[in-house]
């Protein structure tokens, strides 16, 4: 079944005035179209991830495997047909000590009925950042996690993105030094319980 959610980013935030007051402009009408990614979307998603992550981004084969693993938790954000961002997730019960650079790291741990909906990647095209795209994707994927019985949403965030997650109700859980081999980058495990 294919669903399109029209999302207003403000719906996701409780007490989001501070975040929105920092100059975040919400997207003008029409609202974003948030939908599960299709097979046909994967090449475009791969291009966007390559723009964001460079050579460290997931390859097309890995993205395809993750999409097959949990298509309900692999969402795109579009406006006027243009891909603005996407989010990919898995359900797992893992305690996350580190990331293993293996193509099957997420797919081998995914389990329906798990307690955690883990955000593998959240990416927004450079021209559309700070316009509510990421918060809209978080809102939509939270609904997916709730439907699948997850008790919390998890993400490992680069330090400069932590404020986005905090504004969305995530709390810092643990520093994750060396999570990815990016010299000079700090990482934080963030969690948000489902209400």
- Main β-sheet, spatial strand arrangement: 1-2-3-4-5-6-8-7
Largest beta-sheet details: 8 strands, mixed
Please work out how many helical segments DSSP would assign: 5
Radius of gyration, in Å, reads 16 Å
Kindly provide the name of the CATH class: Alpha Beta
Report the end-to-end length measured between terminal Cα atoms: 26 Å
CATH fold-level name: Aminopeptidase
Give the tally of structural domains.
Answer: 1
Shape: globular
Q: Roughly what is the average pLDDT, rounded to an integer?
A: 78
CATH architecture: 3-Layer(aba) Sandwich
Say how many strands there are: 8
The level of helicity is 10-25%
Describe the structure.
- This protein has 195 residues and is α+β, with helices and mostly antiparallel strands.
- The protein has a single domain, classed as Aminopeptidase.
- The protein is built from five helices and eight strands.
- The chain has an eight-stranded mixed beta sheet.
- The longest helix is centred in the C-terminal third of the chain and has 15 residues, at 133-147.
- The chain is globular, with a radius of gyration of 16 Å.
- The two termini are 26 Å apart.
